[in-house]
Amino acid sequence: MGVWSRLVRTFRVGHYDADIEEELQFHLDMDVAGGHHPREARLRLGSMTRIHEETREAGIIEWLDSAFRDVRLGWRQLRRTPGLSLAVVLSLTIGIGANAAMFSLVDAAILRPLPVSDPDSLRLVAWTNVGFPPGADNINGEFRRTEGGKTQSAAIPASVYRRLAREQTAFRALMGFGAETDAIAIATGGSPAEQVRVQYVSGNFFQGLGVEPVRGRPFNEGEDRVGAEPVVIVSHRYWRNHMGGLPDALDRIVRINAIPAHVVGIAPPGFFGVRAGEWPDVFAPLAMKVAFQPGASADGPRGEDDRNWWVRQMARLNPDVSEAAATAQVAGQFRAMAVPEGVQVEPGSIPDLFTLPGRHGLDGLNRADTEALWILMRLVGVVLLMVCVNVANLLLSRAVGRQRESAVRLALGAARARLLRQHLLEGAILALLGGIGGLAVGYVIAQSIHQLFQTGRDVGSAFDLHVDLRVVGYTAALSFLTALLFGLVPALRASRADLNDVLKAQSKTVRAGLPGLPRLLVSTQIALCLGALVAAGLLGRSLEKLKTTDIGFDRDNLAYASMSPSRAGYTEDRIRPYVERVAAELARLPGVLHVTPVQTRLLSGGGNHASLNIPGRPYQQGVGAHMNRVGEDYFQTLGIPLVSGRTVRADDIRPDSEGVVVDELFVKQFFPDGSPLGRRFGIGPKENSGFVIVGVVGNSRYNSLRNEPVPNFYQPYRPGGTVHFAIRTAMDASGLAESIRRVIASVDPAVPLTEFHTQAGLIDRNLRTERLLSFVSAAFGLVALTLAAVGLAGLLAYLVARRTNEIGVRMALGAASGDVIRMVLHDSMSIVVTGILLGLPCAYAVGRSLRASLFRLEPLDPPTAGLSLAGLILVAVVAAWIPARRAATINPIAALRQE
Amino acid sequence: MPKAELQGALELLVLKSLRRGPNHGFAIASYIQQASDDVLRVEAGSLYPALHRMTEAGLISAGWQMTDAGRRARVYAITAKGRRKLDADGKRWQAVATAVARILRAT
To answer: Which residues of chain A have pLDDT under 70?
Structure first.
């Protein structure tokens, strides 16, 4: 029975097999019971296993089972060359990981629709107008000129939005929300106030988007009313991180800018609002803006100001009404309400509403960031291609090694298709392992890049990054595509093996020519690597140039401290003495040399630009200068030299002061003839000349390092809602952060330090996209270089191994080890040179495609190209040296004995 | 005769035997042997693959039953589809057999 049971066990695959076995056993027993000798019965039954096999073949089980056995065979084959398999899986992990990471970022930032129900039926509402609409003083959010001299923007007054949403019937719903989020201070329980972003929304916002709070309820129409009791909905992450994730959060009162508000709901976990990349922690009805953020001035309008256009609209299409008809209805209604009574309107200058696709909400990224993401996406694509080439080469060398095995199997009657399938299956196993590894590595890379992206931005800027089906699907598709790409060539080659050729070749005689395909693949890899290096080099040099741009003032030992007294209830008349006190206290700190209040921190990214109205020159919208309001010590603090006239004086700091200071570029551009001192100019389209130039100072950069310098002019300081102080210190300014925080808390504990930045930090923040690009592309450039080195070294090692006999013969005939090294190096250099020749046009194309992201650099920047080439050649020589050394140490006797 | 034809004949015989009522593989083989006066011997090596193939095709259904002796046996029964196939193919087979016999006699 021993053989019998062993046979049975061998074929025991599962329950199905046991059934067949039992059935056959039954047959056997019945035969014996019928009077036959067991031995005869067994003979009559025939080969148990054969019947078993054939019976099993009848079912689908057989198909799965044979595939399963092929997978097991494949796994065993891979285990036979563990080093090579590990190298393949690791390369794939890197390549696929980098791509999965970039995809999840691009997906979160650009591709994925809003996390709301049926995003495809959403439309953003915007308008065009000839010039600035009459009736508006301020327009929030996007604002740009279209071809034909029109203005395109989207925001409208809150009260007009409410009437429109109430009266329109063409859309299923018309939701409203602040065109920009606002910074507020929020405090829960006894904890200190924290800076978060608030998104003001209409009463129908959550219902209209189909977003259900996980706890509590959405807002209702009655709550979006000036004077209503303040209510808020908090984000899921705020609830989890700051309210302990407790259900009783709903009954809690939070203080927003010191105003108590009820928490009525908690948003779902992935809901970030309407703009990917911006994640407000508080949602409040539109009308709450008046309560939470009253104007700094005490005598300002108490209610909502219809001259402030700040509400954007999103419409949900009604399936029964065409988009065009609905837009026409709403546009007509808007025209009727847009302009307040009593305002004279020229024909054609009433904003004309139109709709845009709303599936993705508002643009998550600015143009530079989007461009940066695509650049990185292309770069990781190159890395993946290099990985594919590497893996194909590794598998190819293995397939060549297995040619004898393949040929024998073919000669013994194995089907070619079956061999091909076996090879592809092995590729698929590798791809699967690489894909799993890539998913894990990709998650880590994506989180790190996200973190890099966030440095210097506030907590409100975050993407919803998580591994979802889209990312897994993309990774899986990528893995199998690569498996096909790298697996097919070696598979075809292995299954094509001809027994005669292979067995003849096994005599291991000298082979004159080397296999062409692997060499070409490595050359391709070097070409791709050159492209990646040039990209990284150009982006790095670009950043370096930006960093060393002359900014016109001393960036070291300079810091800015900011606070918002208006959020603690200060009115304008109380802010002025507050600012004076803080300035005096700060100046007393040891290590502080100068202190001055300033309206706009330089190179912080924000600021004001004014169109100038100069007597005797035609007024032109958009032609003007940057404007800043500065304290008396400003120029001394920043280190901007006085050229002529005087700087701002203490007695200038009053509301009706006319004197302004301008910079040399301003003079050059607007007052090129004669002395500028005493000359007058104004701002805005109306004839006016309210300013008189009292001094000229040196040029400085205002808010951009990249753009051409723009003229500046300086008005005397006047406090606003947020107060910034520029502080010149004797040592590294970052060391003073803590003492500055204490000083500010000592003046009034209700007004905390909200921001503290060194000037260098602000510049870094200004260059965050460039830094991200340069850092990540350098990292991927290194990966590319490593891959190229591994590819070259691997190929040469393989070639040397194949030529062991030849080298042995050469050495036996008197070749010195130096000759052998030279031979291998010479061989490798021909591969490298081919690669470089292929890579030069590739590098040029890379440079051209990066042009928009480069700063004062040509696509074929000689230092970049030279350095990339030098680096590549150096690495190639090192990579070739190792196999060359090994070739030189071949023992001729041992090599010949292998024959 | 091609293999497929022979297989078809075996299937026909199996269906015919099951027409009398559900039965297990050994009984099916025994029936065919007896009914053909020991002329046709069905080998297990052909029978069981055929039974499983026919089950997959839905011509017969299979299930486990206890025999009188108290053993578990896999028992097959003809399905409606099997009946239709038996009727159709049975007639055709008879026609072919008669025709072949006629030719053989004529020579």
So the answer is: 1-17, 43-67, 294-302, 339-348, 400-401, 403-405, 408-415, 417-418, 456-460, 494-515, 897-899
Beta bridge partners of A145: A151
Helix/strand/coil (H/E/C) assignment for every residue in A24-86:
HHHHHHHHHHCCCCHHHHHHHHCCHHHHHHHHHHCCHHHHHHHHHHHHHHHHHHHHHCHHHHH
**Can you give the pLDDT at residue A579?**
93
Find residues 41-100 of chain A whose CB sits inside 8 Å of chain B: 44-47, 50-51, 54-60
Which of B7, B26, B32, B72 to probe the A interface (max A CBs under 10 A)? B26
Question: Which of these, A824, A821, A811, lies nearest to A895 by C-alpha position?
Answer: A811
Mean pLDDT of chain B: 84
- Give the whole-angstrom CA distance, residue A704 versus residue A125: 31
| B chain contacts of residue A57, beta-carbon cutoff 8 Å | 49
Do residues A753 and A563 make contact, with C-beta atoms less than 8 angstroms apart? yes
Structure confidence at residue A136 (pLDDT):
78
The per-residue pLDDT for A157 is: 92
Helix or strand run (H / E) with residue A844:
helix A817-850
In this predicted model, what pLDDT tens digit does every residue of A381-397 receive, in sequence order? 989 989 888 888 877 77
Q: How far is CA A245 from each of CA A192, A216, A240, A241, rounded to the nearest angstrom?
A: 18, 13, 4, 7
pLDDT of B25 higher than 60: yes
Both structure tokens of A99: 């791509």
Q: List for chain B the helix, strand, coil content (%; round to 5).
A: 65, 15, 20
Reduce the DSSP state of residue B73 to 3 states and report it: strand
pLDDT at A501: 61
Nearest by CB to A46, from B30, B45, B72: name it.
B45
Nearest CA in chain B to A32: B26
* pLDDT at residue A513, rounded to an integer: 40
Residue A4, number of CB atoms within 10 A of its CB: 11
pLDDT of residue A507: 44
Q: Reduced to 3 DSSP states, what percent helix, strand and coil does chain A have, rounded to the nearest 5?
A: 55, 15, 30
DSSP A141: S
Q: What is the pLDDT of residue A13?
A: 45
Find which of B11, B47, B48 to mutate to test the A interface (most A CBs within 10 Å of its CB). Answer: B48
Length of chain A: 899
Whether A287 contacts A310, CB under 8 Å: no
C-beta atoms surrounding A713 within 10 Å: 22
The answer to whether B59 touches B11, Cβ cutoff 8 Å, is yes
Out of B48, B55, B71, name the one closest to residue A24 (CB).
Answer: B48
Q: Select from B30, B49, B73 the Cβ nearest to the Cβ of A26.
A: B73
Contact A19 B44 (CB under 8 A): no
Q: Which residues of chain B neighbour A29 with C-beta distances below 8 Å? A: 71
pLDDT at A1: 35
Q: Model confidence over B44-67: pLDDT tens digits?
A: 778 888 888 888 888 999 888 887
Task: For A357, list phi and psi in degrees, rounded to 5.
Answer: -60, 140
Taking the C-alpha atoms of A644, A645, A646 and A652 in order, what is their torsion angle to the nearest 10 degrees?
Answer: -140
Cβ-Cβ contacts under 8 Å, A47 against chain B: 45
Q: What is the spatial distance between Cα A479 and Cα A436, in angstroms, rounded to a whole number? A: 9
Helix (H, G, I), strand (E, B) or coil at A670: helix
Contacts of A44 (CB under 8 A, 6+ apart): A31, A36, B44
| Residue A324 neighbours by CB distance under 10 Å | 10
Cα dist from A659 to A523, A623, A633, A680, whole Å:
68, 21, 16, 9
- 3-state SS, A202-222, equals CCCHHHHHCCCCCEECCCCHH
